[in-house]
């Protein structure tokens, strides 16, 4: 905490320094000024919590300083120390927020009491200020989420508008006399990969940035409002209610703002003009359809409307038609065969004049199901959690590969599809190799965990193998069953520990994985031919 002493007489400032136990009051910085003008400069620079000032000073006196403090440093607490017992000065002190008026010569007790009172007043105010800051932060965090949920609710169920009409009028200027609207959608599904990768660790920040850019344009003249769609992971909805015939041109203007700020353009779908709020859902659905049905192989606009329907796609092409070929390529482990299988699929895709987001989404869903099925086939008997873990490196949603013009890049898609399938093939080959070596991994595990309560079931669960398989393979590899192998390790460790005369037999037993000393002794004698005690006597006598 800081205090500023303002007095034109240095001996008074020195006296105040000596009369106060600053450390006791939690004050670690003491500043000084010979007049009010010098004090204002120090206050702006250091923002002291407590100010002790004289009233009669040159250049700027205490009266003027108090007035300046109220306007420029209202959170500071002021104690007046004056040589004049003047009611007008006292009244001025109280009027402009002074906490105390002390007369010279200064009484130490009175000064310390006044300082303590000022500090308590500042601390109480600061606590209130901190509470208000926290509330403001919380409100600024919650408020956008509130509007997201409320407006998403109106999009889904227009009848909910009535209960929020007054708030919408007050906060967004969406008045009751507005009876027409259009809905536009900005979807992250077709956003450039480079932008999404930049925000991959914080997609909320990307949404925040996009919504802010939209609202900088929309809210300036009360044209509309952009919000994150509560029921979608990828959509920002723009509810428009002013200058609706010029909406497409205005979306182009927003897109230019995107290009300037984020160095990318985005696709907007926009619905027709409809009655508000009754048909707002219809306009939203039209905007969504316009985006999903646009031809990703062509780029003639960034603003898509059902008023300009895309060319109808050809007969449905399904990814599952190529499942068997890709499955065989994966099993082969040959990158060349995988590339050939994918090339056959892509050659067929290239024949399509129209490819929509809707079609890509269908192919992605087919491929996702196929990947899961392959993993379950290749790694039979694994748990659902293990399946999820093995596919965790794969994207959870389809990122549409677009070039710089926003056109679907089939070459990027082919590369990504090939990468994904090669990854699955490598997992299969690694598993086959691991299957040959898993018994040695189990043996190593026993070497490192012999002192724990190791069971065949626990090992089976850890290595995702059946108990029967482990028992059979272990016996084949080591010519001894797993329990005897573990016993040999434990006895080997026990013999080393028994050479230490300071360890009791029960301690040795526990250290090598046996909680029962008698059972340990029984197993030891069975394997070594003598009891632990006899072994200890023999080994120590050698």
TrEMBL record:
List the SUPFAM superfamilies hit by this protein, alphabetically.
CheY-like (SSF52172), Homeodomain-like (SSF46689)
* SMART domains cross-referenced by the UniProt entry: HTH_ARAC, REC
Q: Per its UniProt record, what Pfam families does this chain match?
A: GGDEF_2 (PF17853), HTH_18 (PF12833), Response_reg (PF00072)
Q: Which domain of life is it from?
A: Bacteria
- Response regulatory domain mapped to chain residues: 2-119
Q: Which UniProt keywords apply?
A: DNA-binding, Phosphoprotein, Transcription, Transcription regulation
| Membrane spanning residue stretches | none
Task: Tell me the ranges covered by the HTH araC/xylS-type domain, including all copies.
Answer: 440-538
- CDD domains in the record: REC_YesN-like
Residues modified as 4-aspartylphosphate are 54
This protein is called Response regulator
Q: What is the lineage of its organism?
A: Bacteria, Bacillati, Bacillota, Bacilli, Bacillales
């Amino acid at each position: 905490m800081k205090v500023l002493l303002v007095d034109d007489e240095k001996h008074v400032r020195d006296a105040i320094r000596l009369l106060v136990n600053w450390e006791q009051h939690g004050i670690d910085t003491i500043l000084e000024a010979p007049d009010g003008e010098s004090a204002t400069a120090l206050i702006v620079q250091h923002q002291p919590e407590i100010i002790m000032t004289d009233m009669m000073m040159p250049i700027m006196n205490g009266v003027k300083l108090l007035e300046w403090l109220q306007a420029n440093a209202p959170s500071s607490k002021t104690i007046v120390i004056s040589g004049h017992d003047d009611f007008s000065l006292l009244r001025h002190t109280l009027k402009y927020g002074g906490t105390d008026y002390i007369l010279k010569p200064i009484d130490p007790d009175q000064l310390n009491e006044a300082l303590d009172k000022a500090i308590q007043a500042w601390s109480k105010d600061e606590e209130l200020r901190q509470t208000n800051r926290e509330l403001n932060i919380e409100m600024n965090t919650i408020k956008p989420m509130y509007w997201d949920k409320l407006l998403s609710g109106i999009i889904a169920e227009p009848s909910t508008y009535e209960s929020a009409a007054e708030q919408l009028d007050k906060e967004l200027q969406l008045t009751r006399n507005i009876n027409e609207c259009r809905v536009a959608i900005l979807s992250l599904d077709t956003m450039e990969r480079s932008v999404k990768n930049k925000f991959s660790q914080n997609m909320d920040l990307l949404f925040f940035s996009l919504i802010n850019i939209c609202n900088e344009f929309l809210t300036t003249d009360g044209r509309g409002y952009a919000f994150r769609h509560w029921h979608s992971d990828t959509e920002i909805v723009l509810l428009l209610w002013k200058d609706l015939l010029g909406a497409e041109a205005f979306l182009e203007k927003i897109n230019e703002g995107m290009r300037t700020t984020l160095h990318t353009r985005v696709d907007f779908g926009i619905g027709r003009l409809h009655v508000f709020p009754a048909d707002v859902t219809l306009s939203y659905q039209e905007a969504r359809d316009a985006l999903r049905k646009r031809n990703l192989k062509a780029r003639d606009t960034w603003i898509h409307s059902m008023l300009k329907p895309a060319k109808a796609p050809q007969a449905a092409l399904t990814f599952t038609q190529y499942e068997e070929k890709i499955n065989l390529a994966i099993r082969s482990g040959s990158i060349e065969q995988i590339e050939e299988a994918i090339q056959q699929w892509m050659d067929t895709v290239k024949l399509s004049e129209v490819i929509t987001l809707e079609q890509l989404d269908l192919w992605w869903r087919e491929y996702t199901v196929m990947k899961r099925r392959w993993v379950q086939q290749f790694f039979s008997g694994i748990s659902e959690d293990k399946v999820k873990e093995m596919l965790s490196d794969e994207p959870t949603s389809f990122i549409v590969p677009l070039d710089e013009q926003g056109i679907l890049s089939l070459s990027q898609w082919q590369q990504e599809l090939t990468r994904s399938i090669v990854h699955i093939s490598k997992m299969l080959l690694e598993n086959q190799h691991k299957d040959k070596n898993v018994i040695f991994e189990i043996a190593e595990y026993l070497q490192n965990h012999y002192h724990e309560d190791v069971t065949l079931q626990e090992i089976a669960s850890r290595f995702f193998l059946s108990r029967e398989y482990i028992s059979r393979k272990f016996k084949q590899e080591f010519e001894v069953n797993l329990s005897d192998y573990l016993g040999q390790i434990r006895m080997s460790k026990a013999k080393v520990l028994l050479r230490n005369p300071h360890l009791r037999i029960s301690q040795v037993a526990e250290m090598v994985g046996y909680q029962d000393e008698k059972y340990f002794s029984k197993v030891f004698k069975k394997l070594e031919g003598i009891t632990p005690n006899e072994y200890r006597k023999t080994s120590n006598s050698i």
